[in-house]
């Protein structure tokens, strides 16, 4: 379910550049794979923020996933498990890009993944980044 929500939008936006720019199939697929990691990362971080931030901090209703007993990553694997998943997804997104592109070419998508992942460091959940 999490891979079918906003992650599909992120994936579509990410692959538009290489497709329109004449990228080869391998380039498009590497970026697609990275975007899938980033999309899932976004969903996981959003689930964490929903239970760790206030409505005022989020700018939207907080803890609504808990109210509706949604199947979120924190509900399924716990906060410790989900923070480990965030680290895994960050590493996977970076590895996927750097296995094919150099760091300069990959910089925009690497920064996007870090921006999304760092959203939760404000909560004091992840401290080793």
Can you walk me through this structure?
The chain has 129 residues and is mainly α. It contains 6 helices and no strands. Helix 2 packs parallel to helix 6 (103-118). The protein starts with 5 loop residues before the first helix and ends in an 11-residue tail after the last helix. The relative contact order is 0.15.
**Global shape:** elongated
**Largest sheet, described in full?**
none
End-to-end C-alpha gap: 28 Å
The beta-strand count equals: 0
- What is the percent of helical residues? over 70%
Structural class: mainly alpha
Give me the number of helical elements. Answer: 6
Order of helices and strands: HHHHHH
- Low-confidence segments, given as residue ranges, are 124-129
**What's the multimeric state?**
single chain
- Mean pLDDT, to the nearest integer, reads 81
Strand content is under 5%
**What is Rg?**
15 Å
């Amino acid at each position: 379910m999490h891979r079918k929500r906003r992650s599909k939008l992120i994936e579509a936006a990410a692959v538009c550049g290489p497709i329109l720019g004449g990228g080869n199939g391998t380039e498009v697929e590497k970026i697609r794979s990275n975007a899938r990691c980033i999309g899932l990362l976004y969903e996981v971080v959003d689930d964490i923020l929903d239970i760790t931030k206030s409505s005022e901090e989020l700018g939207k209703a907080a803890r609504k996933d808990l109210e509706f007993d949604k199947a979120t990553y924190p509900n399924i694997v716990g906060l410790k498990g989900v923070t480990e998943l965030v680290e895994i997804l960050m590493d996977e997104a970076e590895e996927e890009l750097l296995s094919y592109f150099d760091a300069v070419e990959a910089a925009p998508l690497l920064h996007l993944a870090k921006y999304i992942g760092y959203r939760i460091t404000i909560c004091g959940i992840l401290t080793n980044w």
